Structure formats: C-alpha cells, structure tokens
C-alpha cells in the first residue's frame, strides 16, 4: 500500500480545488465566449432577416397564381407559370443545383407559346389584326413557333400559314396540320435567298387577299388596292385585303386602315419582332426570379431567334448584374464565335455565300448564322458561350431518360450539356444555382433526334459515357 500513498501524495496538488482567482478568470472567459457567440449569432440572424426583407420588397405578386384550385379562361390561361424542376441526376453528381424551366408543359408544348401569345396580343392591341375577321397569320419557322401560333390563332379566330424547311421532324408538320394550319415546306436556304422560309412567309403575307390584276381600260371596273401597314418593327408586316374603290377616289388607304372587319394578313416574324423579347422579359424572367427567391448564379439557354436568352437574361441582370448569362450553341451555328471572338462566322461560312443547310446539326430550334434584332438585344449581357456537339446532345437526352425519367427534345439537351460545362469551367462544387430552359419534349423529335436509325445513318453516336465523362472530369479552375 506504500506505493498508493506515494501516488496520492504526488497528485495532491492537482486534486486541490482551483484558487478563487483562477475560478474567477475561468468564469469570466466562459461568459465572454458565450456573449460573443450570442452576439455573433444575433448579428447573423439579423443580417439574414434583413436580406429576406430586401428580397421580399423586390418581389411582386405572381401574374398568374398556381392553378390547383382555379379555372383559367381558354388556352391563354395555360401558358406561362411553368414549374422549375430540379434535375436530380446532374445536381447530385455536381453538387450544384441545376434547375430547368419546364416550358414543355405549356399548352402548345414549348417555350414558343409565350412568344406566339405575346405577338398576337400586341398585334391586337395595336389594331393590326382583329379576331374572327378572316385574317391570316403568316410565319416562317422550323416548327415550334408555328405550332404555338396555330394553337392560339385557332382559339382567337385566325387562320394560319406556316412556311418551314422540308427537313424538320415530321411530327411538327402533323401537329400543324391537325391544328388546321396551311403548311408549305421548302428547301433549306440562306436568308439572302428569296425562297428561304422566312422570306417566303413575308412574301405570302404581303400578297394576302390580292385578286387577279384588274386593268384600268374598263371604265366600269374598280381597282384593287393592296394596303401595307406600317408597324413598330421594320420587318413585321400587315397587309389588308384589297379595297375596291372608284378611280376618282384617293382615300382607299384610310378606308382600309379604319375598316376593322376587313381581313388582314399578318407576318409575325419572331426573329425581329420585339414582342419575342418582351414575352420573356415580362414573363419568363420574373417567374424564374420569384421561383428561386432571387437565388440565381447563372442562366443558360440556346438561341434561335435570340428572344429567350435576351429577355430572361436582361431581366435577371437587372436584378443582379453578377448573374452569368451563357448560350448553348449547336454545331454549324455562328453564335458561339460571335460571343467568344466577336465574329459571327468565317468568310467561307458567311450566309449568302453558301448554299447548304443554315445550321448543319440534328438539333432543331436553336442555332443561327445571322444577326437578328432579338440577338442584338442579347449580346450586351452574354458572358459566355458553349459549343455543343450532336453527340453530346444525344447522349444527354438518353442520360436524362435513364436517370431522371425526363423525355426532352434536342435543344433542352443542349442547354443541359452547357450547364454542366459552365459549372466545370467555373469550378463550382456547391452553393450555386444554375437555371436553364427545357424548351420542348421528345415527342416532337421521334423521326430525327430520337430515331436511332436516323442517327446511325448520320454517323452520330449514341453513347451515354460522354455525359458520364463530362460529369466526372475535374473542374477547370
């Protein structure tokens, strides 16, 4: 037991109660630490509360409330206010939230429903066209805008003529015909060709309602005077059916413009029409801002006419100038070069010198080799661009079906590939939100983009490993 006594004797100084001074110092340290912790926590809570108050102050009520318990009036009520869906597979793999605006849920099946509605609404407000007067809307399109216009036109009492390239997916043609549209298919051509689909749509509108020419040699005959209306756009055109008046009357144009019941031909021209931009600046952009509570770090979208990326991008930048805006550009398009290098195309690719497809890609709906009014509106706010190959787009579409059950079209797949590339380029691994547009579903692409035999003949691989490799590649810091 001697060793026990020795041990206790050696430890006795350490087993004594601390002195009063030491105890006081310890208590003061604990109180100071606790006070600092409470103070810092209070400041953090106060800061977060003030931040939320500022965000709430910047938000306005939704233009269209959630439709779970209400009745909307006609097809226009089924356009917009689409959900923002988290792409689980990509978000989980990257640690960054990738959110898709589910525009394929619009009544006409695509993001173009917003544009078509805005163009028709604006034309009616300006008195250019009037419902149920026998008027006809003309448009040149690769499909989706035409379907959207035909949908709304049918509900509003207008006829529709759609001019489109003859190599677009057959499903789009069938949808247009089912909606009662007159469809004219032409060979793909450059914009300088008078027979290019957009130029032909304008020509058809300008000749709307013109009868056979009447000679003035017969004093009993009356002349047919076509009337072309001036519009806010240099390109948008409205033509009235000819008005028959006597040769001694010079007020035919005034009569035509004042006769609201007279049929008119309206060339909508989505490429140049400011209504395209407005649809997204006034609608899609504010919806994204509200749905994310202002937490947006980047917005990515493809550009065909340029209206979506311009309108949404401009709105988001007006709320937070630090938000990155980037485009997804398919093969054969010149927008990537325009954003990255300041030139739209090489001289040998210049539109007007080539006589081939405007954009050589299996992707439909995005990509262009010329400047439009809407793309001009996008250029000042574009921070980056990403070239997307056909193989990458095809791989992404199949990857999303396998892992998320999302059956999307070609432009949606391009957008999501670009989202992944942007995240990798910036080295983002967490606490970021990237928003993109899911333009339409795969149901409009069975004959081309979702046709394995077509892809094999075009020598486009179907390889999901492309996406796997992209996701697993190291960030480029």
UniProtKB/TrEMBL annotation:
<dbReference type="Pfam" id="PF00291">
    <property type="entry name" value="PALP"/>
</dbReference>
<dbReference type="InterPro" id="IPR036052">
    <property type="entry name" value="TrpB-like_PALP_sf"/>
</dbReference>
<keyword id="KW-0812">Transmembrane</keyword>
<dbReference type="GO" id="GO:0004124">
    <property type="term" value="F:cysteine synthase activity"/>
</dbReference>
<comment type="similarity">
    <text>Belongs to the cysteine synthase/cystathionine beta-synthase family.</text>
</comment>
<keyword id="KW-0472">Membrane</keyword>
<dbReference type="GO" id="GO:0005741">
    <property type="term" value="C:mitochondrial outer membrane"/>
</dbReference>
<protein>
    <recommendedName>
        <fullName>cysteine synthase</fullName>
        <ecNumber>2.5.1.47</ecNumber>
    </recommendedName>
</protein>
<feature type="transmembrane region" description="Helical">
    <location>
        <begin position="26"/>
        <end position="47"/>
    </location>
</feature>
<feature type="domain" description="Tryptophan synthase beta chain-like PALP">
    <location>
        <begin position="248"/>
        <end position="440"/>
    </location>
</feature>
<keyword id="KW-0496">Mitochondrion</keyword>
<dbReference type="InterPro" id="IPR050214">
    <property type="entry name" value="Cys_Synth/Cystath_Beta-Synth"/>
</dbReference>
<feature type="domain" description="Tryptophan synthase beta chain-like PALP">
    <location>
        <begin position="77"/>
        <end position="203"/>
    </location>
</feature>
<keyword id="KW-1133">Transmembrane helix</keyword>
<dbReference type="InterPro" id="IPR001926">
    <property type="entry name" value="TrpB-like_PALP"/>
</dbReference>
<keyword id="KW-0808">Transferase</keyword>
<keyword id="KW-1000">Mitochondrion outer membrane</keyword>
């Amino acid at each position: 037991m001697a060793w026990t006594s020795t041990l206790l004797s050696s430890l006795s100084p350490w087993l004594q109660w601390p002195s009063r001074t030491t105890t006081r110092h310890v208590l003061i340290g604990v109180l100071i630490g606790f006070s600092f912790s409470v103070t810092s926590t209070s400041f953090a809570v106060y800061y977060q509360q003030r931040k939320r108050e500022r965000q709430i102050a910047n938000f306005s009520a939704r233009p269209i409330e959630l439709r779970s318990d209400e009745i909307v009036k006609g097809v226009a009520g089924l356009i917009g206010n689409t959900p923002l869906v988290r792409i689980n597979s990509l978000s989980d793999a990257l640690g960054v939230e990738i959110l898709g605006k589910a525009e394929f849920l619009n009544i006409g099946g695509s993001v173009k429903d917003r544009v078509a509605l805005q163009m028709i609404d604006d034309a009616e407000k300006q008195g250019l066209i009037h419902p149920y007067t026998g008027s006809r809307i003309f448009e040149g399109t690769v499909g989706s805008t035409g379907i959207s216009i035909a949908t709304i036109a049918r509900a509003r009492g207008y006829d529709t003529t759609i001019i489109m390239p003859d190599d677009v997916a057959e499903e789009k043609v069938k949808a247009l015909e089912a909606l009662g549209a007159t469809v004219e298919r032409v060979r793909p051509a450059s914009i300088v060709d008078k027979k290019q689909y957009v130029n032909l749509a304008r020509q058809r509108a300008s000749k709307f309602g013109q009868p056979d020419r009447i000679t003035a040699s017969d004093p009993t005959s009356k002349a047919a005077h076509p009337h072309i209306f001036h519009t806010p756009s240099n390109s948008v055109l409205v033509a009235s059916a000819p008005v028959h008046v006597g040769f001694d009357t010079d007020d035919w144009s005034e009569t035509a413009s004042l006769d609201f019941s007279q049929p008119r031909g309206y060339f909508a021209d989505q490429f140049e029409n400011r209504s395209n931009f407005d649809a997204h600046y006034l609608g899609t952009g504010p919806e994204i801002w509200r749905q994310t509570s202002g937490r947006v770090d980047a917005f990515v979208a493809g550009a065909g006419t340029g209206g979506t990326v311009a309108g949404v991008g401009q709105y988001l930048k007006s709320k937070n100038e630090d938000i990155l805006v980037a485009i997804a550009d398919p093969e054969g398009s010149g927008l990537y070069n325009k954003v990255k290098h300041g030139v739209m195309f090489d001289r040998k690719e210049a539109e007007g010198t080539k006589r081939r497809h405007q954009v050589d890609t299996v992707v439909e709906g995005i990509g262009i080799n010329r400047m439009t009014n809407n793309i001009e509106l996008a250029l000042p706010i574009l921070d980056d661009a990403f070239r997307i190959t056909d193989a990458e787009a095809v791989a992404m579409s199949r990857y999303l079906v396998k892992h998320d059950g999302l059956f999307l079209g070609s432009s949606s797949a391009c957008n999501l590939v670009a989202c992944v590339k942007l995240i990798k380029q910036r080295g983002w691994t967490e606490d970021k939100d990237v928003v993109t547009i899911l333009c339409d579903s795969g149901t409009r692409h069975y004959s081309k983009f979702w046709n394995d035999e077509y892809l094999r003949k075009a020598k486009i691989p179907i390889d999901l490993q492309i996406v796997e490799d992209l996701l697993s590649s190291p960030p480029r810091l």
